[in-house]
Design brief:
The chain is mostly beta strands. It has one domain: Bulb-type lectin domain (Agglutinin, subunit A), CATH 2.90.10. It has 2 helices and 12 strands. The strands form 3 sheets. Strands 2, 3, 4, 5 and 6 form a 5-stranded antiparallel β-sheet that branches. Strand 4 and strand 5 form a beta hairpin. Its EC number is 2.7.11.1. Its main location: membrane.
């Protein structure tokens, strides 16, 4: 049986080397806001969306989430959560911003510029929203994963989601 690291490297090579995936890389210095045209990043097929989603029944607060984009109820498959023992969804007010900084840090900030969430990856050359529904932050050098939503799951599963080996 192949070692898990080899399988992960092989999967990354296939996923990150396809022309459509390369076209969807999220560049350093880009950002998303809760309102306006830059509120989400799509997977290459458009099946999944990573971005700000209004909390049901409240247009003043948002979740940073991934959801199925091509179905009417837009089921969330992942959302940013607190690091407590019993994690809670992080709700941010209108005017919040998600920055993928020029130094390769993904940072969710409220309207006062206070950081409310950061996955802990640094020095990333790019990020990508994959057609599997996994949002990936590449490690320095770009050939391995520094952080991914599949290893930070919520309570939603689907057929393309793989379980972490660790």
């Amino acid at each position: 049986m192949a070692p898990p690291l080899f399988l992960l490297s092989l999967q990354l090579l296939v996923l990150l080397s396809s022309p459509s995936a390369q076209a969807q890389n999220i560049s350093l210095g880009t950002s998303l806001t809760t309102q306006g045209p830059n509120n989400a990043w799509l997977s290459p097929s458009g099946d999944f969306t990573f971005g700000f989603r209004p909390i049901d029944g409240n247009s003043s607060f948002y979740l940073l989430a991934i959801w199925f984009n091509k179905i009417s109820d837009k089921t969330a498959t992942w959302y940013a959560k607190t690091s407590e023992q019993e994690p809670q969804p992080i709700q941010v007010p209108s005017g919040s911003i998600l920055q993928f900084t020029s130094t390769g840090v993904l940072s969710l900030r409220d309207p006062t510029n206070r950081e409310v969430w950061n996955p802990g990856a640094t020095g990333a050359p790019y990020a990508i929203m994959l057609d599997t529904g996994n949002f990936v932050i590449a490690a320095a050098g770009g050939s391995t994963i520094s952080w991914e939503t599949f290893k930070n799951p919520t309570d939603t599963s689907w057929s393309h989601k793989r379980c972490p080996l660790e």
